[in-house]
Amino acid sequence: MKRYSQQTRLLFAVDCIIFGFDGQELKLLLIQRGFEPCKGKWSLVGGFIQEHESAEEAASRILKNLSGLDGIYMEQLHTFSSPSRDTVERTVSVAYTALIDIQKYKQPLNEDFHAVWFPINHHPDLIFDHKEMVDLAKEKLRYRAALHPLLLELLPAKFTIPQLQQLYESVYNTSFDKGNFSRKVLSTKLLVKLADKDKLSSKKGAWYYKIDRKKYNANFHAFLNFVPDPHVQRNSTL
Q: Which of 63, 77, 104, 222 has its CA 20 to 30 A from that of 85?
């Protein structure tokens, strides 16, 4: 095999940042690293790309082998290439990200690597530059969620406004004023009020809603600027 002369050989890796909604809050999938350095510490789901693979193929293989999750669509987020990001060898990593409904994936998580879902804003310290990867993925998710109603896709067939608010507060790591949130989300005209209530959470109960699929598909940009600032800070009143 011919090789370029006088060029440095680098290791090529992928890391998967998987966000999942469990019906209550948004979570981040982590595993315990199985080899040194940092063996036993918490890490994103990642590994090295093999000679015969593309980065996308490697990401799917590694996610399935280390976590048990299969068939998940992932988008490329960013390439992390700092010379000092890995303490052993110069390693370039391409990060991929996905947002899923955890309840739609019935396969159990892989116990060999202690794959665990942690709350997105309360997870253990991560190895190398994995926190930087997660922070960038969260920033992108928040930006997209402020412009488009993509978070609605994570909710069950019928849901309450408090459930939706809880999801948004989990994503943005902040609290929204209950009245303002309800008015803004209903002003999008993307939700249909149902005849029954959820009476388990409070005596008064909360009305159930569903997505108006016709309006959702025809007017996907109805949530444009739903959150005033995609980089919203803590204690926002929305």
A: 63
